[in-house]
C-alpha cells in the first residue's frame, strides 16, 4: 500500500473518532444551561408584570399626556385640590430605582411609601391591597425593566387642612381595610379570578361606588354607582339592571364591551373608554370571561323604585321639538325607531345607559359627542360628533328628553338648566 493511501486511511479513522466523540459529548437537546433558564424565568416574570400593570391601568395615571411612560407629572384634580402623580420609572434619584420588592409590596398592600409616608387614596391602594405578593413582585420586576426617566416629582397642591397627611390616619380607620384577596370556596375558580381582577387590579369600585364628602366610600354600597369627582361623568351602578347591571346580558356581550369597547348592547365613552383603551383591551379572553362571570353574578340592588308615570310626563311641545331635532340630527345613525346599527351605532331604544336616573352622560354625549376607543378588536371605531355648537340648551334638553322617553324607554325629562350647567364645564 502506498504511503499516501495509508496516511489517508489514518486521517479518515481520526476524523471518524473525532466525530463520534463530538456526537457523544454534544449538549442534550432538551436541557438548557442555568443562565438561559434564569433568563427565561426573568423574561416570563417581566412579561407577566407588564400584563398585570396593564390590568391595573397604571399608565393612565402615571403618564402625563404626550409625556414619557410612567414618568408621572400628571395633575389629578380632586375636590381638595390637585394631586400630581409620581414618577414610577426605575430612576434612582426621582423614581423608584432604589425601591426593593418588599417596599413596593408594602406600598401596594398598605398605602405606605418607602419613606413611611401615608399615601393619598387617589392611588387605589384600598383596591390594590387585594393583589397577591406574587403579582406585586411581577409588576415590580416589569417596572424595574423599563427605561428610567429622570423627572422630579411635583408637590401636591392641596388646600388646608387636606395637605396635612396626618389626617389620613382617620381616613384609613374609616375607609381602608388591608388584606389580600381570599378566594370564596363556594364559588368557581373562574368566578374567583373575576372577583380578584374586579376588586383588586381593576379597582372598578373606585369609580362605580359613590364617594362622600371625605373622599371615602361605603363597602356596603360597592358598585352601586355615583358621580366621578371632578370628571362630571356618572359611573353607573353595576348592581342594578336598570343602569349598568349585567344580569340580562350574555357573557359575550359583556366581554365584547370590556375588550372591544362596543357590543350589541352598548358602547363605552368618557372615562370608561380610556380604561378600555389603556387596560381592558389587553386582557386575555380567559380573564375577560372571568370578569364577565363575576360582574354578571353581582347581586341586584336597585336602591330606588322606577320613576312614576307622573315623573315621566313631558309636554307635547317639548316632545315635538325633541322628535324634530332627533329626526334631523340623530336618526341617520340611530334610526327613526331608535334601534341603531350595533355595534357601530348603538341602539337608544331599550338602552339602560339612556334611561338611568342621572341624565348627565346622555346630556354630555349630545353636547360633546365622543368616540369609543380604538382597540385590537375594534380598530376603527365609529364616533358621535358634538352638537353643542348646533343646538341650544332647549333643543339639547328636548332631544335628550325624547330619547329617554320614546320607544318605551322609562327615563325622565331633562331641563335646559341641567344642560347649561354641563355646557359651561370643559369636556374631560
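^ C-alpha cells above, recovered residues below v
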Amino acid at each position: 500500500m502506498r504511503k499516501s493511501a495509508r496516511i489517508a486511511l489514518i486521517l479518515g479513522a481520526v476524523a471518524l473518532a473525532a466525530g463520534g466523540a463530538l456526537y457523544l459529548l454534544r449538549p442534550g437537546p432538551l436541557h438548557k444551561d442555568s443562565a438561559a433558564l434564569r433568563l427565561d424565568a426573568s423574561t416570563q416574570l417581566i412579561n407577566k408584570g407588564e400584563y398585570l400593570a396593564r390590568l391595573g391601568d397604571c399608565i393612565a395615571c402615571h403618564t402625563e399626556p404626550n409625556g414619557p411612560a410612567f414618568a408621572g407629572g400628571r395633575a389629578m384634580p380632586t375636590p381638595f385640590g390637585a394631586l400630581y402623580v409620581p414618577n414610577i420609572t426605575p430612576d434612582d434619584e426621582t423614581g423608584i430605582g432604589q425601591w426593593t420588592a418588599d417596599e413596593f409590596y408594602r406600598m401596594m398592600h398598605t398605602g405606605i411609601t418607602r419613606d413611611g409616608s401615608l399615601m393619598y387614596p387617589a392611588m387605589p391602594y384600598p383596591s390594590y391591597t387585594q393583589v397577591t405578593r406574587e403579582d406585586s413582585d411581577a409588576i415590580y420586576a416589569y417596572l424595574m425593566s423599563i427605561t428610567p426617566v429622570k423627572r422630579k416629582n411635583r408637590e401636591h397642591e392641596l388646600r388646608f387642612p387636606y395637605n396635612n397627611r396626618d389626617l389620613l390616619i382617620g381616613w384609613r380607620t374609616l375607609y381602608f381595610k388591608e388584606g389580600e384577596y381570599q378566594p370564596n370556596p363556594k364559588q368557581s375558580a373562574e368566578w374567583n379570578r373575576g372577583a380578584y381582577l374586579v376588586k383588586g387590579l381593576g379597582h372598578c369600585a373606585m369609580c362605580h361606588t359613590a364617594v362622600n364628602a371625605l373622599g371615602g366610600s361605603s363597602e356596603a354600597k360597592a358598585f352601586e354607582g355615583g358621580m366621578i369627582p371632578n370628571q362630571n361623568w356618572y359611573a353607573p351602578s353595576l348592581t342594578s339592571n336598570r343602569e349598568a347591571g349585567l344580569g340580562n346580558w350574555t357573557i359575550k356581550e359583556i366581554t365584547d364591551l370590556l375588550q372591544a369597547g362596543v357590543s350589541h348592547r352598548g358602547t363605552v365613552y368618557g372615562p370608561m373608554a380610556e380604561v378600555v383603551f389603556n387596560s381592558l383591551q389587553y386582557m386575555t379572553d380567559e380573564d375577560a370571561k372571568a370578569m364577565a362571570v363575576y360582574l354578571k353574578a353581582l347581586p341586584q340592588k336597585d336602591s330606588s323604585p322606577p320613576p312614576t308615570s307622573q315623573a315621566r310626563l313631558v309636554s307635547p311641545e317639548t316632545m315635538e321639538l325633541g322628535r324634530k331635532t332627533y329626526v334631523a340630527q340623530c336618526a341617520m345613525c340611530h334610526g327613526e325607531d331608535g334601534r341603531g346599527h350595533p355595534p357601530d351605532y348603538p341602539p337608544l331604544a331599550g338602552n339602560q345607559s339612556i334611561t338611568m336616573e342621572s341624565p348627565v352622560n346622555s346630556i354630555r354625549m349630545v353636547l360633546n359627542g365622543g368616540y369609543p376607543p380604538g382597540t385590537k378588536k375594534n380598530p376603527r371605531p365609529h364616533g358621535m360628533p358634538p352638537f353643542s355648537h348646533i343646538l341650544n340648551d332647549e333643543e339639547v334638553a328636548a332631544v335628550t328628553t325624547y330619547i329617554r322617553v320614546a320607544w318605551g324607554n322609562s327615563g325622565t325629562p331633562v331641563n335646559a338648566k341641567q344642560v347649561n350647567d354641563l355646557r359651561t364645564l370643559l369636556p374631560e
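The chain has three domains: 37-175, 189-296, 316-423.
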